Structures are given as C-alpha cells and as structure tokens.
Amino acid sequence: MPGFSDKSVLVLGGSRGIGAAIVRRFAADGARVSFTYAGSAEASASLASETGTQAILTDSADRDALIATVAGRGPIDVLVVNAGTAVLGDPLTLDPDAIDRMIDVNVRAPYHAAVEAARRMPDGGRIIVIGSVNGDRMPFAGGAAYALTKAAVQGMVRGLARDFGHRGITVNAVQPGPTHSDMNPEDGPMADAMRGFMAIKRHIRAEEVAELTAYLAGPQAAMITGSFQTIDGGFGA
Ligand SMILES: NC(=O)c1ccc[n+]([C@@H]2O[C@H](COP(=O)([O-])OP(=O)(O)OC[C@H]3O[C@@H](n4cnc5c(N)ncnc54)[C@H](OP(=O)(O)O)[C@@H]3O)[C@@H](O)[C@H]2O)c1
Which one of 29, 135, 146, 172 has the lowest number of neighbouring Cβ atoms within 10 Å? Predict the structure, then answer.
C-alpha cells in the first residue's frame, strides 16, 4: 500500500465508527491528519492523542463554520467527507426539522466542503465522500430521505469529477453496506434484517471501508473518478 507521509488529510466526521477507522488508517501510513467532530468531544480527544492527529470541533450542519474549517487547513491533499446521520422511519410522522438537518449534514456539507477544499488542493488531490449502497438500493421502508441524501452524493460526485478533472483531482464515493458502528450495530434491532439483504451475511468492519478509502487516495487510483466504489457484502446485488 502507498505511504501518505507527505500528505495532508482532512476527515470530516472522524470521531467514531467509519470515520475513526479512516483517521487511524491514514495516520498509520504517516499522513498529517486532522478530523472534525460535532458531539463526541471525549472520543475525539482520545483518538487524537492515540493517533497523533488533530481534532477540530465543527458541526457539518453549520455551513460557514464548515467552510472556515476546511479553508483553515490550507492545501489539503485528501478530503474525506464521512460525517453523516441516518434519520429513518415513517415519512408521515418523521420530524421535518430532523430530515432537513440530515440533508444539511449528508448533502449540503459534502458539496460545500468539497468545493472549498478544491480551491487550494494541489493537482492530483483526492475528494472522497462516504455515500451508501442505499444511494443505489433502498430495500426496506422508512429510508426514503436517507436514500435521497446518498443518491444526491452520487450526482455531486459525477459533476465535481468533471469540474476538477483537468487538475488531476479525483472525486469518488465509497458506498458501504451495513457496517458495524454506533449507527448500525451488528447486534442491533435491525441487524438481522440488514444481513438478510446481503450475499455475505456479516456486518462490514469499519477498517474494511477505511482500506477502500485509502486505496482511492493513493497514486494507483489516479484514473478512478466520478465513480461509486461499493463495499456492501452483496447488499445491492
Ligand atoms: N454504518 C453503516 O451501516 C453505514 C452504511 C452506509 C453508509 N454509512 C455512512 O458512513 C458514514 C459514517 O457512518 P458511521 O456508521 O460511522 O456512523 P456513526 O457511528 O454514527 O458515526 C458518525 C460520525 O459522523 C460524525 N458526525 C455526525 N454528524 C456530524 C456533524 N453534524 N458534524 C460533524 N460530524 C458529524 C460523528 O461525530 P460526532 O459523534 O462527534 O458528532 C461520527 O464521528 C455516514 O456518512 C453514513 O451515512 C454508514
């Protein structure tokens, strides 16, 4: 695997779950890593001291704060937008404010962060958004708004790949299926139903998603752009 010792990496939403695994993956390969968090101050402090990375309090739903944080990092070689929430349930009773906040975090934030990062990103940089296989397939009730946000990521990835391709900057989505985390624990109430949709019936490990993310960030992935790299155990098959 490539080393990232000369690279500056920003992970938006790195305090827990998949984001924390991505922070660990890049830090282990020598990158200068900073990551944002919104609610998990303790977990962030402990991850930062364990990995020698920098934790920055920034709510992705606060557009101006998010843009200021991205701009404040200077030229970033790799931007990973992982921060996301899942508001699931009956669309007739879900709180519209909760839906709009999810859209702020899952859709508006990746767009504004990607554009801001691209302003200073060196040629050959990498923008990677953690989407979801639910951008392709939503096989259960209650996930319409979440699927909407992850399908929106796909449109953004296609478009920005065209906008920044002349600079060798690649823009891709990593699309996990059910991945063991606080959002989707392998022993949670939805776990059996989730595994029922998979060809390989186990939850994905956050480290497996981080590995795919690191692959896309390396020099071997220079010609992969505008694409969705799905890691879902066959959920979408
Ligand atoms: N787990 C799955 O099965 C699965 C499947 C497909 C896609 N995904 C996607 O993968 C990503 C990570 O999911 P996960 O399972 O690791 O979720 P998680 O365990 O709930 O962790 C979410 C992470 O995002 C951060 N975050 C959430 N809202 C934020 C905000 N407003 N501002 C800044 N950071 C914020 C959290 O930080 P704080 O705690 O500090 O707020 C935390 O670090 C999400 O985009 C999710 O949609 C997950």
Answer: 29
